[in-house]
Write a structure and sequence with these properties.
Helix content is 2%, strand content 47%. With 253 residues, the chain is mainly beta. InterPro entries: CD80_C2-set, Ig-like_dom, Ig-like_dom_sf, Ig-like_fold, Ig_V-set.
Length: 253
C-alpha cells in the first residue's frame, strides 16, 4: 500500500440499550435495542488530509462525511438505516429505530485528499435479534390420566428472531417432541412443540411428574450466552386404594 493512510483502521460496534416501558417488557426483563453506533476512528492519516469517510450497508452507501464539503454530512436512503445526523461525525455514525432490516454487513471507507487519494476500509457485521417478551407457555387438556394413557401437551414460544429452540424435559430428563411447527409473521417466529407421552410407571417420581419446556434463543454474536426461558407443569399422581392402575391428573403452573 502506498504511503499515506496506514491499514490500522478498525471498525467497532457499540450499542446503546434502553428499556421499553411496558408490562410485557418488564416480564422478560430484557433491554430493547433502539440505537446503534458504529465507530471508525482508528486510522492514521500521517501526512495526508482527510477527504471523506463513507459508510456502506451491504455495499450500498448510506452516509458520507466530507469535512470540506457543503454540507459536511449527507445520508442516503437504504432499507433499515436511519442516520442521526446530530450524533454522527467523522468518527462514528449513529443509527436510529433499529429493526430486523438493519441486519447486514457494514463497512467504513476512509479516503485521503490529493495527491495520494489513498483509502482503507474495514467491515463489521450486525445481527438484530428480537427477544421474546414472554416465556414459553404450556397448554394441554386437564383431565385424569391412567398409566398407559397418552399425556398430550403443547409448548408455544414467544415471538422472536431468530426462532426459539424448544426442548422438553420429564423429571429432568430430555425427551423428544412428537411434532414441531414454526410460524412466521413480519420476520418474527413462533414455535409450537407437541409432546405426546405414554405414561409409564417409570415416569412417576413420588407423587408427581415434572414436565418442563425450555425455550432457547441463540445469538450468533454470542452463542455461549443464549437467552433461556422455561415453563414448568406438574402432573400430580393420585393413588387409589384399589385397582392396579395409577390415575394421574395434569395441572399447569
Amino acid at each position: 500500500m502506498p504511503n499515506g493512510i496506514n491499514d490500522s483502521i478498525r471498525a467497532g460496534i457499540s450499542a446503546n440499550l434502553s428499556r421499553r416501558k411496558s408490562r410485557e417488557q418488564t416480564k422478560s426483563r430484557r433491554p430493547t435495542l433502539v440505537t446503534v453506533s458504529f465507530s471508525c476512528s482508528r486510522y492514521d492519516l500521517e501526512a495526508d488530509k482527510l477527504y471523506s469517510i463513507t459508510w456502506y450497508k451491504d455495499h450500498e452507501e448510506f452516509y458520507r462525511y466530507v469535512p470540506r464539503g457543503e454540507p459536511m454530512k449527507h445520508s442516503y436512503r437504504v432499507e433499515g438505516v436511519k442516520v442521526d445526523h446530530r450524533q454522527s461525525n467523522h468518527q462514528q455514525v449513529l443509527l436510529q429505530d433499529v429493526s430486523l432490516h438493519s441486519s447486514g454487513q457494514y463497512k467504513c471507507e476512509v479516503s485521503a485528499e490529493a495527491p495520494s487519494f489513498n483509502s482503507v476500509s474495514a467491515e463489521a457485521s450486525m445481527e438484530v435479534v428480537v427477544l421474546p417478551q414472554d416465556g414459553p407457555s404450556i397448554t394441554g387438556e386437564e383431565k385424569v390420566y391412567a398409566t398407559g394413557d397418552v399425556l398430550g401437551l403443547n409448548c408455544t414460544s414467544g415471538k422472536s428472531h431468530p426462532a426459539a429452540i424448544l426442548k422438553w424435559f420429564i423429571n429432568g430428563e430430555q425427551v423428544k417432541p412428537d411434532t414441531e411447527m414454526v410460524f412466521e409473521q413480519h420476520g418474527l417466529y413462533s414455535v409450537i412443540s407437541s409432546l405426546r407421552l405414554q405414561l409409564e410407571p417409570d415416569h412417576i417420581a413420588g407423587d408427581k411428574i415434572n414436565v418442563r419446556c425450555e425455550a432457547r434463543v441463540e445469538l450468533d454474536s454470542n452463542p455461549d450466552e443464549p437467552l433461556l426461558q422455561t415453563r414448568t407443569t406438574e402432573v400430580f399422581v393420585v393413588y387409589f386404594p384399589f385397582g392396579d392402575d395409577v390415575p394421574v391428573t395434569a395441572k399447569r403452573e
